[in-house]
């Protein structure tokens, strides 16, 4: 059921983004009296037929069978359909190629404009409706924070509380701020509160590459530290051993383990082995023999709520609008920085390039509207940014040639555009195959070899 939920969320999000993106091309084309032959959600490549279609005026509307995008087919335009027959005929007044350069430019940037505005708008509406959830660092003073091993190797210790990153106070437990300042930025010094005293450590220059190469998610980088109280028991070793909801795990093979992160490290070191767990239940400590799975698990979910306060910053509608733009712009600049880091070699391309599989994993396993809209807003901005790249067959490629025409007064020939779009399409197809192959390797095959 979790997989079905993710699939439904993915296709709903994709349908919203693609439909509105293509509407961004469709609307200005119609405003400028340019004929639109097709408006499709998903692709209807031969030999299979469209799942649904209808004709209204000059335009055929439909849903294709290949759910990987969508398109509008505009008369007199060289696009990925490679339909060049009409280009052999004299230009007609309703064709794209007959329109002034400024009109063609507006038609081409319409899709990315809609996606940028949509991303900003969704973020704004989320802030207005949900507010912005956060855990203040003052709320984790009792237990501190639990860190991934990549940060422990930098000199941090379990239970440390980050007080500042560079010169910026760290008032909220937000791994995103850490990634922005340290991984994507140039900050290398952080101040920690450890046992009531402040200490400063210097992080290594290759920390970003370590985090990305090990595919450590933002939520796994660090989080509030909690005792290991069982919230839910799934089918597996823990249930077979008799462990119940509400049990607190306090011993591991005779060694004290007060927190979930301590247990997780011990379980990983003993994966596949039989161990003895000490369980506190009704004031008594009981021993349970358990076999750790090869993945270092026992089949339980730890309790997370009740140990720290989750606060929400509230926004009025008027304050949410600029805050949503700021939130979206911050996300966009982070993506641009990430691309810059990949091109410079500071973070690995092969560890960060992903396909629809990686996108699907962004959604919550159970339906969560806050997560759904957050992912949709992020994808909308990513879609706009990627489409603006100056690659023929993407909107950015057409925009590049149109700007050249506006500046020089010289129009790029249809023959050249046809060849450029063919090359661009093949480049994109190769990139998609590479991304899909990397995802298949990472998520399904890597553990087998």
Mind sketching the topology for me?
Blueprint: H1 2-31, E1 36-43, E2 52-56, E3 59-63, E4 66-74, H2 101-129, E5 132-134, E6 145-147, H3 149-152, E7 161-165, E8 168-169, H4 175-183, E9 189-194, E10 197-202, H5 207-213, H6 218-221, E11 222-224, E12 230-233, H7 237-241, E13 248-252, E14 255-256, H8 260-269, E15 274-281, E16 284-291, E17 300-302, E18 311-313, H9 317-344, H10 356-360, H11 369-387, H12 395-408, H13 414-445
Parallel strand pairs: 1-3
Antiparallel strand pairs: 1-4, 2-3, 5-18, 6-11, 7-8, 7-9, 9-10, 12-17, 13-14, 13-15, 15-16
Helix pairs in contact: 1-2, 1-11, 2-9, 2-11, 2-12, 9-11
Which short descriptors sum up this protein?
449 residues; Pdz3 Domain; alpha+beta; 13 helices; four-stranded antiparallel β-sheet
